[in-house]
Amino acid sequence: MTPPSGHIPVLLDEVVAALAPTAGETMVDATFGAGGYSRALLDKGARVIAFDRDPDAIAAGEAMAGNDRFTLIAAEFSGMERELGARDAVPVDGVTMDVGVSSMQLDQAERGFSFQADGPLDMRMSRSGPSAADFVNGADEADIADVLYRYGEERRSRRVARAIVAARPITRTANLANVVRKALGHKSHDKKDPATRTFQAIRIHVNRELGELADGLAAAEQVLAPGGRLAVVTFHSLEDRVVKHFLRERSGATPAGSRHRPAATEARAPSFEVTARGVRAGEGEVARNPRARSATLRAARRTAAAAWGDIGMGVRT
Fold first, then answer.
1. Does the pLDDT value for residue 195 go beyond 90?
2. Taking the model in full, what pTM does it have?
3. Residue 235: is its pLDDT beyond 90?
4. Domain boundaries, the chain
5. What are phi and psi of 251, to 5 degrees?
6. Fold of 12-103+228-302
7. Mean pLDDT, the chain, whole residue set
8. DSSP state of 172
9. Half-sphere exposure in the Cβ direction for 28 (13 Å, CA)
10. Strand ranges (E), the chain
11. What is the pLDDT of residues 245-284, one digit of tens each?
12. Based on the number of CB atoms within 10 Å of its own CB, is 233 exposed (0-12), middle (13-18) or buried (19 or more)?
């Protein structure tokens, strides 16, 4: 089954190898997007249950509805335990996540995720709830600065927030990008557009991306059978940090406490065994798909130990 033209799943071979699907197993594609991972898993004979909160992805995925081994659910992947339970589909044998914004969302100017082409300042993956424009035009200056610093790692967040408030109302992506560039200074030869960090931060905030990721990892822990596999692809350090912390803690690799620094939580049996740490795309894949350059894969296998739930997640949303 060939993916749609223009869409290249990142680290596809590595994700499929980490999940090791076999005929008859049930795999969860937590971030359906254009369906690249789902198609590869179906090709291996697995049953696939996919999630996406983007109505555009759900509509495009209807073309696969004729496959009786495929189910597409319009929901956030953090709710997979509830959704799978309602379909009597727990436990499952594998869960994969390709987190963050998709290339299809970035490429549609009308979705407002990118400043590469002007569009309405939207950024909502689900097309519901407060938009990016609602945030930049309605939030306090201090709250905007906090979001830019926390989710964009923007060192001059206060300056940018001050410029945003002064320029209100801001309703277009080009408008916001120009405000940020003027506030920070921008030269044509700069390798990275200074607006990049602000757009990332606002997008993460509007979609509650890090909280969704943390909740999704905890849900995957609940639904995976003993021996079930988890494969997560991230695209920037904030996402990778959440996954790395989760797997380090759940695999028992967190340093033990001492009399000087007691353990934060009581000792628990590891619920995961890490099978892949920080896998990056090879030169060939990066040449074919530049988006793969920033991708990182982490994978693990579920043990028979009880799930930890949301203990120790500690992710601000």
1. yes
2. 0.91
3. yes
4. 12-103+228-302, 127-206
5. -95, 0
6. Rossmann fold (3.40.50)
7. 92
8. B
9. 37
10. 26-29, 47-52, 70-74, 92-98, 224-234, 272-280, 296-302
11. 999 999 998 765 545 555 555 679 999 999 999 999 999 9
12. buried
Structure tokens at 211: 């909280």
Is the pLDDT reported for residue 198 higher than 70? yes
Fold for 127-206, please state it: DNA polymerase; domain 1 (1.10.150)
DSSP letters spanning 56-102 = HHHHHHGGGTT-TTEEEEES-GGGHHHHHHHTT--SEEEEEEE-S--
Give whole-number Cα distances, 141 to 157, 159, 168, 170, 259, in Å.
10, 10, 11, 14, 43
Please report the DSSP string for 95-135 in residue order. Answer: EEEE-S--HHHHH-GGG---SSS--BS---SSS-S--HHHH
Residue-level length of the chain: 317
Query: Count of CB atoms within 10 A of residue 140's CB?
Result: 10
- Which residue's entry shows tokens 């490429």? 107
Q: Name the token pair of 285.
A: 């894949």
Name the nearest CA neighbour of 315 among 161, 151, 155, 100.
151
* Tokens 């938009």, residue located: 131
3-class DSSP state of 288: helix
Burial call 80-118: b when 16+ CB within 10 Å, e when fewer? bbebbeeeebbebbbbbbbbbbbbbbbebbebbbbbeee
